């Protein structure tokens, strides 16, 4: 009798869902950024001081931004948004919502991205709600997501350092900037803003 053995069947394990993998990696990056970034432990007083500094910097870059902020129903300011990762990255920041020049609440912003990135990058972000309707929608939403709950038009400077006319007419206008000036080729799309408690 010949000694025959039954070949074993090797079952391939299913590959992980890319969407879930991206979400998990982004969440990990955000948690690391929130732990490492000084803003993660900032008090109300610290955030308020950084918000004043960030708005002052923005107004130095663009007088149009100051004019629009004066007409806005509400102004969301994130003075320090830290972005980092290798390949797949995340970003995290904390800031405040200003209504009539006064703080009306504190918020965090979280986002993720795919593409070449290495190390940490810092930037400031400001979102202007130009109508009471858009501001109310933002405040009544538990976790407001840019591009889903509201489209944010990224401001760019035209002739004479003025914001282009079409952008100035949008109901929600966003600015991304550093100490050197406004930053372009970026987006708010996919970032999620949530109200947080601060002492």
Structural write-up:
The chain has five helices and nine strands, in the order H-H-H-E-E-E-E-H-E-E-H-E-E-E. The chain is globular and about 40 Å long. Strands 1, 2, 3, 4, 5, 6, 7, 8 and 9 form a nine-stranded mixed sheet that branches. The protein has one domain. The protein starts with 17 loop residues before the first helix and ends with a strand. With 199 residues, the protein is of the alpha+beta class.
- The total of beta strands comes to 9
Q: What is the CA–CA distance across the termini?
A: 82 Å
Order of helices and strands: HHHEEEEHEEHEEE
Portion in strands? 25-35%
How much helical structure, as a percent, in the residues? 25-40%
How are the SSEs placed, and which strands pair?
Elements: H1 18-36, H2 44-61, H3 63-71, E1 74-86, E2 88-99, E3 102-114, E4 120-129, H4 132-140, E5 144-145, E6 153-154, H5 165-168, E7 172-178, E8 181-182, E9 192-196
Parallel strand pairs: 6-7
Antiparallel strand pairs: 1-2, 1-4, 2-3, 3-9, 4-7, 5-9, 7-8
